[in-house]
Amino acid sequence: MIRVYNTLTNKKEEFVPIVTGEVKMYVCGPTVYNFFHIGNGRTFIVFDTIRRYFEYRGYKVKFIQNFTDIDDKMIKKANEEGTTVKELGDKYINEYYKDADALNIERATVNPRATEYIQEIIAFVKGLIDKGYAYEVNGDVYFSTKKFQSYGKLSGQNLDDLQLGARINVDERKNDPMDFAIWKAQKPGEPAWKSPWGMGRPGWHIECSCMVKKILGETIDIHAGGSDLVFPHHENEIAQSEALNGEPFARYWLHSAFVNVNNQKMSKSLNNFFTAREILEKYDADIIRFLMLSAHYRQQVNFSEELLESAKASVERLYNAISNLEHLLEEVQKEEMSGEEEAYLKELVKHRDKYIEKMDDDFNTADAITAIFDLIKDINTNINIGSSKSVIKASLELIRELGAPLGMLQKSTKESIEEEIERLIEQRQEARKTKNWALSDKIRDDLKARGIVLEDTPQGVRWKKI
Ligand code: AMP
Ligand code: ZN
């Protein structure tokens, strides 16, 4: 039984899907006006892991993560770059996939773009007006928060307090300071679509409400995003969707905590961010995912070079164990498991039970990683050159099995001979650049001793076997 912490009830609850064995899940994705930073990256990694874990536990998951490709930030950036909003979106969606793939984030079932749903959004807005939940003022359309009785239920705020706070920014066009725009009239130079209220574009909140409905339906299992989205974004999504559909919107609301820098939220506006792209130049997916998943997803992570380095060392320890097993597998002779080994294997899978117990408990990846370390310690002390191929294989498979939902530990540590030679040639070139002749000669001689000769040609170094 999987238990999840639900922001809506502030409690851990048993996860009961609408349809047995299926999970309908929607995660608010990036606004595509820039490369994403490692704070956004954590949110993507966390929900990718949760999705993988549901799949590991036998669920069929429909996983939707949108691209916000029309909003103020998109328009501003497109103007700065002298390009169109459409082209800007195309470009950064492309870049998103590059970085997400490099972070070993699985592709979503669908990545809808807001601008592909304009007609549906217009119908949604119209539906809200018809039901008396929204009103038009000079081409803008606002949602009437007062009309929606349970406004504030997700963030646990009451409308009176919220209104008091909002009075500071009174906007003449709105009936009430807490009302928010669901359709925005076109301003000069902005991209716009034809609507019953004139040329305009959708507000941010309505995009998600509409895409959820069109792709997953009126009620979904899980709605997720970073914790900065609880208010107002998710609160507003609930209000719009429940007002129109008359059905509960999402049964479980999951929110991941921030990545901070010096205890401040990493964000584009504070300019204290590192892009995933630049971190990926030095650290690979296993290391970055390890860092993000070594804390519980509802716990903040303070991002630093030291933490990355320590994650790197931990990942190396894990891969050392994998590498040992891969080598042993080549060296040992014995095929069949002994009775003693069979008994040992029964003990070993207790680490899997532990891992599942921790992951079932609101995806406690931190403790799940500890279970993997315990598994590896166990393997290191018990598996050796005297073991059978079968028990080594089973041990290796167990490590990979438990790594998979975390998106880690799937690489082989065995380089092909070609890869090794290329790497050594590159090392030798580096040595020559820094005039380290002793090292460059040693690499050439070592290779020669293995029957591989290097030829310096105008096109670079070639090698052949003699
Ligand atoms: P944005 O592109 O700013 O709309 O953000 C995309 C996703 O990343 C949203 O789910 C945000 O909640 C999340 N996010 C933004 N900043 C951070 C951060 N510093 N740490 C974790 N998640 C973040
Ligand atoms: Zn959203």
Automatic annotation (TrEMBL):
GO cellular component, one term: cytosol
Nucleotide-binding keyword on record: yes
Cofactor(s) of this protein: Zn(2+)
Domain Cysteinyl-tRNA synthetase class Ia DALR intervals: 354-417
Main subcellular location of this protein, as a coarse class: cytoplasm
UniProt-listed Enzyme Commission number(s): 6.1.1.16
Motif ('KMSKS' region): 265-269
Subunit structure and binding partners: Monomer.
Organism: Clostridium polyendosporum
Record SMART domains: DALR_2
Record PANTHER family: CYSTEINE--TRNA LIGASE, CYTOPLASMIC, CYSTEINYL-TRNA SYNTHETASE
Gene designation: cysS
GO annotation terms (biological process): cysteinyl-tRNA aminoacylation
Catalytic activity: tRNA(Cys) + L-cysteine + ATP = L-cysteinyl-tRNA(Cys) + AMP + diphosphate
Family as reported in the entry's similarity comment: Belongs to the class-I aminoacyl-tRNA synthetase family.
Residue numbers binding Zn(2+): 28, 208, 233, 237
Short sequence motif named 'HIGH' region, residue ranges: 30-40
Entry keyword Metal-binding: yes
Note on how the cofactor is bound: Binds 1 zinc ion per subunit.
Coiled-coil parts of chain: 308-342
Keywords tagged on the record: Aminoacyl-tRNA synthetase, ATP-binding, Coiled coil, Cytoplasm, Ligase, Metal-binding, Nucleotide-binding, Protein biosynthesis, Zinc
Subcellular location: Cytoplasm
Record: residues binding ATP: 268
Name of the protein in question: Cysteine--tRNA ligase
SUPFAM superfamilies in the cross-refs: Anticodon-binding domain of a subclass of class I aminoacyl-tRNA synthetases, Nucleotidylyl transferase
Gene Ontology MF: a single term: ATP binding
